[in-house]
């Protein structure tokens, strides 16, 4: 009874549950139905919530939907493989579709795929929905999917998920609507991996992406990188009902205060990602409300284990005790965060290890460790930047706590410009920021395996790497969770990455905008809001 | 009344406005030097679980966006804003004015080449400058002062040169040249006293611009490092308190305004003998 | 004498070309000094060495920077601004619309700010030391002491959020009528006018006071000439050179310096374009923006110099 037991869930099933509720089925009835069918409790619960929410308000058609993200530049792209800013994600979600989709509660739904199945987790069969058309009228076939996935393996594409895609050893079309993916080693997570934004399906042979031709809910009308995009409803959209709004305009307002003001003044319907400090203003306004989602994004302090001072395990341990997690949660994030236990799997993920308690703020213990490391009284440079969300504030708190026990942290605020190529992974002690990834396997492979491309603290453990492979092929949820639980403990105790809190994302919207729900892949409904929202008159 | 038209009254008498302005500047200089000794809290210490808190007996000027004491932060920020700005504006104007007068007095190729170089310097975006500085030299207060001076010297040069060129055509300069006076004398004794008024006004404004630009540059990672912050940065990081009229955003604004207005008022009200040609 | 102005313009054109070349070269050097290149920036966190090498090859960026710069410069001579590294679009297309936006905003600001600044500058100089002078001076310095982002944010709060008179964003899809255009431009123009007017007012006042103190102006007063006549006929011509220079410097700010206003009002102009291009290390775009600023700046200063020469008969020899 693994997580992807309900991968074959379709909108028809949604309708069935809605119908059951309409007939008067209680939450418990629905859950019983699900448990009897072998689905997990969480999955059943989320289906129920979704169905009730859908019933509570039925969508209104029409209107011009105008929303603003927080960053945009001339490098804005409509190529899903290259998408890097959230703005790119939002646009790609409106223009293209993925094979699968991750909904609230981590529930996997099918999007372009009818089903994604495997008997051994190594050879996967993707059955496509029939009758799906691209914006230019061409019908979606297996060739498009093969092309879209294979692109990520080509270095010249510049794909952001090359390291994840590499495990797909063979991708081939079996017939017009069936694709077979063979992995180099079993990986039970493939259906979830395919829900990542970069794996959007484009048309076979596309090189120029400026036209944005996909199968998505909107057709591109106008796109100026760094300025804005304008899209119209795709009348031939394959999902029943299609998008609710007639047109969708998206751009970025990089100044957060200006973004908040634009929502309040009614110039935009949705302003993405507002700061905790803006909540007081927003909450005092009528006609404006907030959508909060905790998706597992975090800002962490990295101490490289291959150089001073992180080579001394006591230094790392000391810093983990000196991070005042509660103060970070309360004062820096104003409650929009959950306290973390120095490992990357957040509570929104089913594999989160609840028994692993976060370290308490304990300056005395920290002092003891620093003394043992022989570093007490020394000046330790800590690199922070606006590029890593809230890192300057966290660094300041660490510095203050340090000065109380005679530890001198020298905060160096460096430009956001070029932070990821110059300081991240490079400086001995520096902050990073990790975006949500849907599975523990992806996080561990990207961040903690010995060969991981972003091994932030140069953590190396043979045992860890073996367990990673073992868990990847394990199809049983409980067994898999047991392995992941232990790996989380290992990271928390051994790695040089201090993860104080998981950050929540809050989007501000006008109250008349409905249908915007939290999503585990990030704010703005996992960046896919355009298709689902509607505007009440 | 047309005061400007009456013959200039001579003497070192300073009027009350000028005196008041001078006292305000003196106050901030004292704060810049001795401020840290009087700060009730450390600049990075979170002392209030609320944010954008009001003025209270405990926190005289309320708390900032993290709940830190704004009063302490302003006291500690004074030395950055006052010190860096005065140093930078003095270097920028000194260099700009000297070169501007020299170019006007010498004319010819020296003037042409220097003027084009300054124009070139003026048209390079300062953000690019800033980033290159951080990348090439690293970040420190002297680098920051140097950068600000480089950004503001060419403007000062252009204005001083325009004034000096006008002045250079005057009869008394011709008389001085005819007397056989050397160029340094002409520049310092004949041209400079005649353009000092506008030059000082320019100095005052450039000071304001530098105070304000500081906050932009510290976000590039230049100079003032956390937990300390210059006043402009205090305004910037607490701008979210504006809708609530939080003291966290108003107090640093008032600090900036009191300093910059005083500098400009003092310049306007300097004793005639210093201000204009004596 | 009459041949001097055309001569100046011609020589300035030559010098302008040289200045552009210097600026271009300095900007190129500066860009090289910045850590990271366009490929690393585009890949961001995904920039593994293999990925960087692969994409660099795909984008044809594997030739040395100096060679690419040479090619760009050669293209520029033929009127081609090149192709952006970041999105493969012709730089000319990217710049055109945004330059028009910038010029529109700059023109609107100039029309409002310059006459007001001149009027206030001259009158405060005429009534130097009076209550009028002191009030205006204090207001002007107070306004310029307020950070630009605060003025802009406060304007949005008051006029867009509380009063709901004006839109919070200036670049919107529905700019169909002149009234809407006026509304959209009101706040950015006011903010920018606040920022640039102060310098012009202060400099005008200072230069005028200096001119009024000149002996021949005092002579004219003693002779009993009228106040207005003294100012317009004797003092103004003598101070117009410095005033024109101050105005030129202030206006040049409207080209590349309006990044804060462009950001807060979401107005796509060239200042934001330049910042973007620096952030992505997009060499052709950085160079093109720098050239635009430089040409704009040199045009303004040349005009200021010409005005100075025309206004001061002694400079015409």
From TrEMBL, chain A:
GO cellular component terms attached to this protein's record: ATP-binding cassette (ABC) transporter complex; outer membrane-bounded periplasmic space
Compartment(s) where it occurs, according to its Swiss-Prot or TrEMBL record: Periplasm
All residue ranges annotated as the Solute-binding protein family domain in the record: 108-445
Any one GO BP annotation for this protein: peptide transport
Coiled-coil residue spans: none
GO MF annotation: an example: peptide transmembrane transporter activity
InterPro entries in the cross-refs: Peptide/Ni-bd, SBP_5, SBP_5_dom, TAT_signal
Pfam family name, one: SBP_bac_5
Family: Belongs to the bacterial solute-binding protein 5 family.
The protein's name: Putative ABC transporter, periplasmic solute-binding protein
Source species of the chain: Roseibium aggregatum (strain ATCC 25650 / DSM 13394 / JCM 20685 / NBRC 16684 / NCIMB 2208 / IAM 12614 / B1) (Stappia aggregata)
Taxonomic classification: Bacteria, Pseudomonadati, Pseudomonadota, Alphaproteobacteria, Hyphomicrobiales
Automatic annotation (TrEMBL), chain B:
Protein name according to UniProt: ABC transporter, membrane spanning protein
Any Gene Ontology CC annotation: plasma membrane
Superkingdom in the source lineage: Bacteria
Signal peptide: none
Cellular compartments annotated: Cell membrane
Domain ABC transmembrane type-1: 78-267
InterPro entries for this protein: BP-dependent_transpt_permease, MetI-like, MetI-like_sf
Biological processes annotated in GO: transmembrane transport
Classification via Pfam families: BPD_transp_1 (PF00528)
Organism from which the protein derives: Roseibium aggregatum (strain ATCC 25650 / DSM 13394 / JCM 20685 / NBRC 16684 / NCIMB 2208 / IAM 12614 / B1) (Stappia aggregata)
TrEMBL record, chain C:
Organism: Roseibium aggregatum (strain ATCC 25650 / DSM 13394 / JCM 20685 / NBRC 16684 / NCIMB 2208 / IAM 12614 / B1) (Stappia aggregata)
Name of the protein in its database record: Putative ABC Transporter, permease protein
Residue ranges crossing the lipid bilayer per the database entry: 12-34, 105-127, 139-162, 182-201, 243-265, 285-310
GO BP term, pick one: transmembrane transport
Family: Belongs to the binding-protein-dependent transport system permease family.
InterPro entries referenced in this protein's UniProt entry, alphabetically: BPD_transp_1_N, MetI-like, MetI-like_sf
Start and end residues of each ABC transmembrane type-1 domain: 99-304
UniProt cross-references to Pfam families, sorted A to Z: BPD_transp_1, BPD_transp_1_N
Keywords: Cell membrane, Membrane, Transmembrane, Transmembrane helix, Transport
Membrane topology: Multi-pass membrane protein
GO cellular component: plasma membrane
Compartment list: Cell membrane
Gene3D superfamilies to which the protein is assigned, alphabetical: MetI-like
Lineage summary: Bacteria, Pseudomonadati, Pseudomonadota, Alphaproteobacteria, Hyphomicrobiales
